[in-house]
Each structure stands twice: as structure tokens, then as C-alpha cells.
Design goal:
- The chain is elongated, with a radius of gyration of 26 Å.
- By secondary structure, the protein is mostly helical.
- The longest helix is centred in the C-terminal third of the chain and has 50 residues, at 179-228.
- The chain has helices spanning 2-24, 40-60, 63-80, 84-108, 113-121, 129-140, 145-156, 159-174, 179-228, 239-262, 275-278.
- It has eleven helices and no strands.
- Among the domains are: 40-80 and 229-265, no CATH class; 86-196.
- α4 (84-108) runs antiparallel to α9 (179-228), α6 (129-140) runs antiparallel to α7 (145-156) and α7 packs antiparallel against α8 (159-174).
Length: 279
């Protein structure tokens, strides 16, 4: 029985490693990448996972429990912590609004569209400064404005930014009139979108707080049973008990994932039409 439990735990641990490796793979393939480079945050998280697995393994002698502890240490802080993706999207939308106003002001000063973009690169908002700098560099290098804007739109990856790029592309192709007015309208649209996201985020914050309370209560109860009433969990010492524990862990993981999803903002773009497009 202990051998079977150890084998089951080893299989679970190997599965965890494969999952982590799969999540870290990207869709972009470079010509050569000699080794996987981890950030300081990822190294600390891996150390925390290892520590949690060791502590739980020593307390329970359960290989599956150690593997589940490692998974929880890796996923729960991100699932129940600050929604960084939503904050980044919020900052990017605000930056797009500010950049559209910069272009409007530069165009009002009688500068051409390409010159207006180049002039905005040095003072672009921090959230999109790298993308705008790359766009300006492409224009200086002689890349056609439509092609440079297409690459900029792909790197920006923001619904409101798509509208701004579309307006700039139309102006580049057809020398559209009233581009400054259209940019002002798009900036106002971006700020309204930001205001809506802030109101939604306030409601989701309460859901995330409830999810944290449920998760912490569950984990404290489980740790309390292990520490204070170890004999109550003796059924999990067998190989069959480890398999049952694996199933229980999977159900709890699904529940925590659902709670986390409820607390996150859906950034699905909403179809909008500007006055310029409707005319």
C-alpha cells in the first residue's frame, strides 16, 4: 500500500510539472531559446510550492496531499489576489484616451498625421509607451503608415485602441476630414468605458472578498483536521484513500476556480459605432 501511494503521488507530481510546463509555453517560437528564464516572482512562487509540499508531506505522509498543497500554493495567490490583468487593461484604456487627445492636439497644431504620431512617442502614457515608440520608429524607418498601424494594433490589443487605429488608418488611406474631432470622440468613448469598468470592478471586489473568505475558511478547516484530529483522516492513508483525496482535491479546485472567475472582469469588447462611422 505505501508503495502504491508513493507511485500515485509521483504520478500526480509529474502531472503538476507537465501542467506548469504547458502553461509556460507560448505560441511564439523563436529560432533559439537555450533555457527557460524565470523571473524573481516565479522563483519565489516555486519555492513556496516546494515548501508547502514538504510541510504537508511531512505532516500527513500523503503524496497526493503534498502535490495538492504545491498546486494550491502556485494557483491560489493569483486566483484570489489582485486582478492584475483587469488593472492592466484599465490602465491601457485610459492611456489610449490620453494618446488620442495628444494626437488631436498635434493635428490641431497643423502637424501631419505621421509627424503627430512621432511627436507623441516621447510623451505617450506609460501603459502604451513601448507600443507607440515602436510605431514611431517604424514610421521613421520608412514603413508605410497602414502597415505600421496594423502592427501597432496587434501589439496594443485593446478594443478602444482598435477604434483609434481604425480611424487613423482611414485617415491615412482617404485623408479623412475632421480626424481631430473623431479622435476627441474616441477619447471620450474610452473614458466612458473606463468609468463603466470602475463601477463593475467595485461590484466584483465584493465577490472576490467573499471568495477569499470561503477559500481561507476551507483551508483552515482542512489544516485544523490534520493538526488536531489526525486519526479522523486515517482513511486517506491507503492507496484508495489517496485516490479519493485526489478526487476531492479536483472538486475543490474546480470550486475555487469558479469563485475566482466570478470575481474577474470580462474584457469582451462591446460593439460601438462612432459618429464618423455611422455617417
Amino acid at each position: 500500500m505505501p508503495l502504491l501511494a508513493a507511485l500515485a503521488g509521483a504520478g500526480v507530481g509529474a502531472g503538476v510539472l507537465l501542467i506548469v510546463h504547458g502553461l509556460r509555453r507560448t505560441t511564439r517560437h523563436t529560432a533559439s531559446r537555450p533555457r527557460l528564464r524565470l523571473s524573481q516572482e516565479q522563483i519565489l512562487r516555486l519555492a513556496g510550492c516546494l515548501g508547502a509540499a514538504v510541510v504537508v508531506g511531512l505532516l500527513t505522509r500523503w503524496p497526493v496531499g503534498a502535490a495538492l498543497a504545491a498546486i494550491a500554493a502556485w494557483t491560489l495567490p493569483r486566483m484570489l489576489g489582485t486582478d492584475r490583468a483587469a488593472q492592466k487593461a484599465q490602465a491601457r484604456t485610459e492611456a489610449v484616451a490620453a494618446w488620442a487627445e495628444m494626437l488631436r492636439d498635434n493635428l490641431s497644431a497643423a502637424a501631419g498625421l505621421e509627424q503627430a504620431i512621432i511627436a507623441s512617442a516621447t510623451v505617450a502614457p506609460a501603459a502604451i509607451r513601448d507600443e507607440v515608440t515602436t510605431l514611431a520608429a517604424a514610421i521613421r524607418a520608412g514603413t508605410g503608415l497602414p502597415d505600421a498601424l496594423a502592427a501597432f494594433r496587434e501589439s496594443l490589443n485593446d478594443p478602444t485602441g482598435d477604434l483609434v487605429v481604425r480611424a487613423l488608418s482611414q485617415a491615412a488611406h482617404r485623408q479623412a476630414s475632421k480626424l481631430a474631432d473623431l479622435l476627441a470622440e474616441l477619447a471620450e468613448l474610452a473614458r466612458k468605458r473606463t468609468a463603466v469598468r470602475l463601477r463593475v470592478a467595485a461590484g466584483r471586489a465584493r465577490v472576490r472578498t467573499s471568495a477569499r473568505v470561503v477559500t481561507v475558511t476551507t483551508l483552515v478547516f482542512a489544516v485544523g483536521l490534520v493538526v488536531l484530529n489526525r486519526s479522523y483522516l486515517s482513511a486517506y492513508d491507503t492507496a484508495m484513500g489517496q485516490l479519493v483525496l485526489l478526487g476531492i482535491g479536483a472538486m475543490f479546485a474546480a470550486g475555487f476556480a469558479g469563485l475566482s472567475r466570478l470575481g474577474r472582469l470580462d474584457d469582451t469588447p462591446t460593439p460601438v459605432t462612432t459618429a464618423e462611422e455611422s455617417s
